[in-house]
Structure formats: C-alpha cells, structure tokens
Automatic annotation (TrEMBL):
The keyword Transit peptide does not apply. Belongs to the AAA ATPase family. Coiled coil: none annotated. Pfam families: AAA (PF00004), WHD (PF22977). InterPro entries: 26S_Proteasome_ATPase, AAA+_ATPase, ATPase_AAA_core, P-loop_NTPase, WHD. Residues 479-611 form the AAA+ ATPase domain. One of its GO terms (molecular function) is ATP binding. This is ATP-binding protein.
C-alpha cells in the first residue's frame, strides 16, 4: 500500500470483498444463463427468428403486435448498509439496473476470463461489454429495455460522473462499449489508493493527533457547514495550513485530500477528466477536497485558453455541488489573493492567522512535555515566530544537535540554532543575509542615540505582548514596527542595523535595490511582494539601505509610468504597516522621502556627525589589541578634525597598511591616512 494512503482495517476490507463477490455472483449467473441460451432463440424477444429477418415485406416490426413486455433480469441486490456498495448507491442515487451495469463493467478488470466470454456474445465488438449487451442481459422485455435507456445517456450518473468510461468505436454503427472506472472497482474492493492520474497533484493530509492548535477556530464552523458548498480559506504567510486542514477534516469526521490547483490546470485538456475523478474519489471516500490555489502571480498567467479552462472547471464544480456533495469544497489561498475561481458559488470565508506569542509559547511547552525550561523560551518564540508544523521539526532537530554535543537534553543554544535554521528563507538575488558579527561594544554612539535605539528594540520585544492586552483591536492590522535612520554617509546607520539584528538574535536581511527596481511596469512591486512574503517567514531584520531610491517622493501623475510608480509607494506603505518583524530604512537625506512614509514610521532616528568627545573615543577604540600605536599620537588633537566613524575606521586601516613593515604606527602614518581620506571627501 502506498505511504500516502491511510491504513485500512483488514477485516473491514475483507467484508467489502465478500459483498462485492456476492453481487458479482448475481450478475455472473445472468451472464452465464444468457450465454447458454444464445443461438438466436426463436422465443427470444430481443433476437428475432431468422424467418422474420428474411422477410422484406413485413407491414410492421416483429414486436409491434405483441403485448407490453416488462420482463426483467435486473438483480435484486441485498447490500449491507455499511458496505461500500451501499454507499455508492446512496452517493449517486443509483438504481439496481445502474448498479448491475457498473458490476458488469468491472468483470474484465476483476477476472480476465470474461474477455473471452464477452467476445463470443452478440452485439460485441469490444473486449468490454456493450450497451446492447447490457440491455439484452438485464432488460429482455421490450418496454423495460427502452425505459432503461435513460440510465445509459451522457447526462445520467454513470457517464456524467465518470463512473464508467466509454470505449472507442472501431467501426461506424457498432455498439458502444464501456468499462467501469478502475478507481470505482478499487474502492469497491476496499482500496483507497489515489488514481494514477492524480498521484502527482493530490496527497492525503496527515492527521496530527496531538495538535489541537486550531480546534477553537474550526469549531465555529458548526453553524455554517450545512449552509454553504464552498469554504474559502485565506492564510497569511507563515501559518500552519496543514494543521488547520487536519483539524477541519477531523471536524467533519473525515480525511483531507490536498490538491494542487495549478498542477491540475497545467494538465491542459485532461484537467476536466481529472477533476471529475477527484470529485468521484472524494465522494466515494467521503473525504474533504482541498484545492490549494496558486499565488496571485501564477494565478493570473496563461491567457485566454487558461481562462477558458478555468471556466470549464467551474462549470464542473457547480454541477457537482448541485448534485449534492457530502462535504463542502475547500479553497486554500494566500490572504492577498483577490480573484478566486468558482465566483458563482456561495461561500463562507475563513482566515488562518499567524499564531500569537502566547499560542506559540504554550505550543512549545506542549512539545517539551509541559516542562518549563530554565532558559527564556518565551523570548525565543517571540524573536523567531515559527508556524506550529515547523516548530515541531525544530524541536526534534534541537534534540539531534544536543546528541551531537554529547548532551542528553538540548540547551538554549540548540533550540536557537534549530529555530533559526528553520526560519531562514532563500531570497536569492533580491537580498543578502548578514549574520551579525558586531555588538554594542564595537560601536561608539551618543547616549541619546543609544536610548532611541533601545526604544526600538523594546518595541520589537514587547510588541506581541502589548497587542494581546487589547491594542490589537485598537490599531487593527497596522501593527508593524519600522524605523527610519537618516544622516550623512558614514555615521553608522548600516553598522547599527547589524548590531540591532544581533541584539535580537537574528540575521540582517539587506535588500539589494539593484535587483528590486525594475524598469518594467509592475515588476518592482512583484519583487517587493516577494521580499516581504519571504521576510514574514524569516526571523531576520529587513534592511533597506539608500531607501530614497525606492521610497522616494511620489510624482505628479502624468502617464501610466507615474501612476504605477505611485502604486508601488502605496503598496510599500501597506506592507510596512502590516509586517510582523522589524523593518529599518536608511537614507542620507530625509527630505528625499515621501511625506507619507515619514508620517507612518514607528521611529525616526537622526545619525549626526559625532562630536569631538565621541571622535576621540572612536580613535582610541578603533585599533585592535595586536596593533601598537606610538605614544606621541594625541587622540584628542586628532578628534578636533570633523570625521565620521567610517572615515576614522578607513584612516586607521590605511595607516596600518602603511606601517605594516614597522612595529608601531606613527603619527606620520595616521596624518597621511587622514589626508587621503579627506581627499576622497573633496576636502583635501
């Protein structure tokens, strides 16, 4: 049995087989009786005597003068109520004639000897039974035969719902052959394997028995489940969608089948057939069908043929809903997806939100067996907000890391390493990940600036705790924390951003504006959306350097290009306000930024030129312990020259290069290096 198939009870499967064999025996008896009687029996109402066939001058058909004949060979099936065959009859409202047709179409696949038997019978040109043979077997009476024709039409359940497949005609005028769909036969025999065509795009959602994180949210569906055929589930990035779907399936006392809508659409012409198979399979197994919709970019691609296919699939879904599906259809999409398929269906909207701090903390404690660790677990889940499924794997990895270090139980560093590894996203060319190497001890800033930066860190650390105390309702979704660093080049904006990321125990995600900004309309916005979507799942601090290139003032709308540029600015404002982590923007000139941005920043911090006292501290601290500076160097005098921290660092590095062959850096080396630095600045 494939790994993705839920285990079946062997005794129950055996009962299903016995029920199937008992029903087949009834059909088999009729088939064998017909084979023995077949020789164009003159008493047969279906096969007329040869003398009548040879008469070319009959005034009326051979049967027209006879009395109404409702003779029937349709089996009377005795099906246990709990059997799958009874479920099949109930689900599709099948008559006993239609069930007999289904069983007859199973025989070739179930037992190959029937192929030879069918080939010997009249009205047969295919290996499978024909519709003519079906009528001859079960409806020998003329009137009954025509009364049952409707059950074999394209709009009847057998064909419409794909329970049987039509075989191609090899010659014009030959009887239409058919076979029962392999999926139906497998299910009647007790299997729940996915049909071959669906295995690449559908999978079972594992029941997470110990996870009840979404139980409260799902329990609210009790009132709505009978009122709507479609559950429209929207999820934010970083949410544990699988746990939610598993809880939803448990709510319906079912199992969930997760299907990639994009992969289904990419099958092209086969998509309608595969969708019918999906509906059949979920109806047979009474499982919850979950269509995972593609992101907005992928959903809008494909042109007219793509739209036509979606419309065709919508019609199939609507027809299935009208037929009365046992469970609602679920569509699973990103929160920002605006256009959804099946627009004509009534729906109930659900949202899967990112779990809050207390939820994450309590879930971590449950993974640790309820034991409160000695280290600050609350701070860990506050800094690194993993969804529950990722948190489970991170806790498992922390145990493996501890064993590698020869420890029986993981420590704080093991959990932090495992959590950070799970949170890291791949930004490719859009941003570079910087692992902080410097701390507060490596920078020299004014007490006032340090106080402002501590306030930013305090806001980040206490954000969720304050929101959970009632502010979430007050501020809505605009709960993001953003900081603007502005000041002259070299005043330490980038270095401070790195230090702050280190203080939070996460990486700095430095956005590469050359990869973000695109001359084509709409592409810059798509790149930004990609960065923010990844950053939501990443624990890192998002850093935009020289942000005025991207967040500059909006221009007067003169053409389509200006209009799209302004749309990009508005989009950035929205993402800044909603981003759950810290976003830092740096610019050399605050006046270059759009006023709408400066009004909405949580913090605005000015990085001024350092005063003489700070510059003296920088000159003294810039030298590594291994570097010896001559005693005659007067750092207080050097500090009188207006330089930034970056200028001082560059001058110290150049002086060290110039004196590399000597044991001591002299004042001459430092003054020469300062002169070169001033020349670079145009002040030499």
């Amino acid at each position: 049995m494939p790994e993705d198939v839920p285990p079946a009870d062997s005794a129950a499967a055996e009962d299903q087989l016995y029920t199937f064999l008992a029903a087949v025996a009834q059909v088999d008896a009729i088939l064998l009786r017909h084979q023995q009687q077949y020789q164009f029996d003159p008493q047969s109402d279906f096969y007329p005597p040869s003398s009548e066939l040879e008469s070319a001058t009959r005034a009326m058909p051979y049967w027209a003068g006879r009395s109404a004949n409702w003779q029937s060979n349709i089996p009377q099936f005795d099906l246990p109520a709990e059997s799958r065959m009874a479920q099949l009859v109930e689900q599709y409202q099948l008559s006993e004639f239609e069930l007999a047709v289904l069983l007859l179409g199973c025989l070739n696949s179930f037992e190959p000897r029937y192929r030879q038997l069918f080939a010997q019978l009249p009205l047969q040109q295919n290996e499978g039974p024909s519709f003519g043979l079906v009528q001859a077997l079960f409806c020998p009476g003329t009137f009954l035969r025509h009364a049952q024709r409707a059950s074999l039409q394209a709009d009847a359940p057998l064909q419409r719902d794909g329970l049987i497949e039509l075989l191609p005609r090899r010659n014009a005028g030959e009887e239409q052959g058919y076979r029962t769909h392999e999926m139906v036969l497998d299910w009647l025999l007790g299997s729940e394997s996915l049909p071959a065509g669906l295995q690449g795009m559908a999978r079972w959602v594992e029941d997470q028995h110990n996870d009840r994180s979404h139980q409260a949210a799902v329990s609210q569906l009790a009132f709505h489940q009978s009122l709507t055929p479609l559950l429209d589930i929207r999820s934010e990035a970083g949410t544990d969608r699988e746990a939610y779907i598993a809880e939803l399936a448990r709510h319906f006392n079912s199992q969930a089948l997760w299907v990639s809508w994009l992969q289904l659409l990419n099958t092209g012409r086969d998509a309608p057939l595969l969708l019918r198979q999906l509906f059949n399979f979920t109806r047979l197994t009474r499982s919850l069908l979950v269509l995972d919709l593609p992101p907005p970019k992928a959903a809008g691609e494909g042109g007219d043929s793509y739209s036509a296919l979606i419309e065709q699939l919508e019609q199939i879904v609507e027809q299935q809903v009208r037929d009365g599906l046992p469970l609602p259809i679920c569509t699973l999409s990103a929160a920002q997806l605006s256009q959804l398929p099946f627009s004509r269906l009534s729906r109930h909207a659900l949202e899967i939100g990112v779990p809050g701090l207390e939820e994450r903390y309590n879930y971590l404690l449950s993974l640790l067996g309820g034991n409160t660790p000695q280290w600050d677990a609350r701070a860990l889940v506050q800094r690194i907000a993993l969804p529950f499924d990722t948190m489970r794997s991170a806790v498992a990895e922390s145990h493996a890391l501890a064993m590698q270090r020869g420890k029986m139980w993981p420590q704080e560093e093991d959990f932090r390493a495992a959590f950070l590894r799970r949170a890291k996203q791949n930004f490719n060319a859009l941003a570079q990940r910087v692992t902080p190497q410097r701390s507060w001890d490596d920078i020299i800033i004014s007490p006032g600036l340090r106080e402002q930066l501590d306030e930013v860190l305090c806001a980040v650390r206490q954000r969720e705790r304050v929101l959970e105390r009632g502010f979430a309702r007050k501020v809505g979704k605009a709960t993001g924390i953003s900081a603007l660093f502005y000041g002259d080049p070299g005043t330490g904006k980038s270095m401070v951003a790195e230090v702050m990321a280190g203080a939070l125990g996460v990486d700095l995600i430095r956005v590469d504006l050359s990869s973000i900004i695109n001359k084509y309309i709409g592409e810059t916005e798509k790149n930004l959306a990609r960065v923010f979507d990844l950053a939501v799942q990443d624990a890192g601090v998002l850093f935009f350097d020289e942000a005025d290139a991207l967040f500059g003032k909006r221009s007067e709308t003169k053409d389509a290009k200006d209009r799209h540029a302004n749309i990009e600015v508005a989009y950035l404002l929205q993402r800044l306000e909603h981003h759950p982590g810290l976003v830092i923007l740096a610019t050399n000139n605050r006046s270059h930024l759009d006023d709408a941005f400066t009004r909405r920043f949580s913090f605005i911090t000015h990085f001024a030129y350092p005063n003489a006292d700070l510059r003296e501290q920088m000159w003294r601290a810039v030298w590594p312990p291994q570097i010896k500076v001559a005693k005659e160097v007067d750092f207080a005098r050097l500090a009188q020259l207006a330089l930034t921290g970056a200028n001082i660092r560059n001058a110290a590095l150049l002086a060290s290069w110039l004196s590399a062959e000597k044991k001591t850096i002299s004042l001459e080396h430092i003054e020469r290096a300062i002169q070169r630095e001033l020349s670079k600045m145009g002040r030499g």
